[in-house]
Write a structure and sequence with these properties.
about 180 residues, mainly alpha, de novo design (two linked rop proteins)
Length: about 180
């Protein structure tokens, strides 16, 4: 009888230690996802702060392109107001498309393309876009690790017991990025 009691206690202690270990790992993964999102948020804020300066620099040259400049301003406002990862992804995709249209329009203004302030802002924006891309990749990697852990057996049991929820990937839908460019000679 004593042997059975000892075995039951050992099994219970082992089970409790396992649950504690899985719980701690899930908390660590969730915190890594939150940290990765904050890195994206920092870069998106940097991008949002650069856009008004870029527009102000271009306004003097692009008097006939008011609609393009307003589209960027509106897309920026929507992106800044996004509350969820899905909303942010959609809004940032629209902002990226508006910026791409703006930069294509800039090609028609040689004086603007030669302006040192504009060139510096354009370079800063390109650098920020690269940082956003890297931060987004890191975030999505962290979400993948986290989601795998909360969905795989047996850790999914612990995850459901303590309310760990699946996280959303940051996927920007930009049809222009997904299309293959046409090359003709």
């Amino acid at each position: 009888m004593m042997v059975i009691l000892v075995v039951v206690v050992v099994v219970l202690v082992g089970l409790i230690l396992y649950v504690i270990g899985v719980f701690n790992q899930l908390v660590r993964l969730r915190n890594q996802v939150d940290n990765a999102w904050s890195q994206i948020d920092v870069q998106l804020k940097r991008r949002h702060d650069l856009i008004p300066n870029l527009i102000e620099t271009a306004k003097g040259y692009m008097k006939h392109e008011r609609q393009t400049l307003e589209a960027i301003t509106q897309a920026r406002s929507q992106a800044m107001g996004a509350r969820t990862v899905g909303e942010a992804a959609k809004a940032e995709g629209a902002l990226g498309q508006a910026l791409a249209r703006f930069l294509m329009t800039v090609e028609n203004y040689p004086d603007l393309k030669a302006n040192q302030n504009f060139l510096a802002l354009q370079e800063e924006l390109a650098s920020t876009e690269n940082k956003i891309s890297f931060a987004r990749q890191n975030y999505n990697d962290q979400v993948l690790f986290y989601n795998n852990r909360i969905q795989m057996f047996p850790s999914n049991i612990v995850a459901s017991m303590f309310g760990f929820a699946k996280r959303e990937f940051f996927e920007v839908e930009a049809p222009a990025e997904r299309q293959v460019p046409t090359v003709s000679f």
